[in-house]
Write a structure and sequence with these properties.
Blueprint (H helix, E strand, L loop, with lengths): L3 H7 L2 H17 L4 H29 E5 L5 E6 L6
Antiparallel strand pairs: 1-2
Helix pairs in contact: 2-3
Length: 84
């Protein structure tokens, strides 16, 4: 199980999401013994964090925060758009 984080880290967003959905279905079924449920939950949390990290990275590539004259965030603009 020590190699599991490396395996999760190499998953695409879609593959990680599918694996997470499978775990959720297993846990919701109620047919998994307690110890296995705990292990599944831990793996699910790792998958959730991986998916969130991938989503955050994608969002950062798509948009950036535009600061207003007072330095406060005034909105967002596409990442590749020129400054106004």
């Amino acid at each position: 199980m020590a190699s599991e984080p490396q395996t999760i880290d190499t998953l695409s967003f879609e593959d990680a999401l599918r694996a997470l959905e499978t775990i959720v279905r297993q846990l919701e079924s109620g047919d998994v013994p307690l110890e296995d449920s705990i292990s599944l939950y831990e793996k699910g949390e790792k998958l959730r964090l991986h998916c969130q990290k991938r989503l955050d990275a994608a969002q950062a590539r798509i948009e950036r925060i535009v600061a207003g004259p007072d330095g406060a965030a005034a909105g967002v603009q596409p990442f590749d758009a020129p400054d106004r």
